[in-house]
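The data are set out underneath:

___
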Amino acid sequence: MTTVYKKSKGLTDVEMHFCPGCTHGTIHKLVAEVLVELDVLDRSVGVVPVGCSALSYDYFNCDMQQASHGRAPAVATGIKRVNPDLVTWTYQGDGDLASIGTAEIIHAAHRGEKITTIFVNNAIYGMTGGQMAPTTLIGQKTTTSPLGRTVEHSGMPLRVSEMLATIDGAKFVERVSVDTPANIRKTKKAIKKAFELQISGEGFGIVEILSTCPTNWGLTPVDAIKWLQDNMIEYYPLGNLRTPEEAK
């Protein structure tokens, strides 16, 4: 029998804890596949903070380091500077990176740290109970905005990629999504490009990935995908925002 598909050796056999319909599993698969295809799995170190990504050290078949909430870029910076031959990356959610970790990600990009960041944006705090995040959309209901987010109370949702794309030290910034097979393929391509830039020594790269949170959105997995398509992509348009050529 011909094998047409098998799990990447970049993942362990540990069963994932993610909720049904959550697209973290898809993103994990893509990152693992890229590390294997680039032949850097054995010299990779992933850094995960607090949040839905906190148990990722059980899932990736490479060295992993836990960081405090929001501090993954700082920890990754230390690892990369001490061991520059390592392929160092962070895996962070929007409640982490865009809130308590805003300073860390901005200054890592500003310094041009040669690390890669996988930024999962599902517009809400996932693990901690579905609170409003800096990325929560206007009108979106959460446990801390039960009537819906308003501009008057919380300002507009933070567009992290557009912000980082203005920083000279950022060499690669792209926003993608995992809502369709075609977009999943584009997401993998962007992840691979970000890692290739680190491997070639060009500098900081971030891939923002629009994702779903069916549990905290109160939707079925199918309806969550449609909500992402109908609401998130309009405010967070997909595409490349910065390339190494533009960063020069």
Notes: The first helix runs from residue 24 to 37.
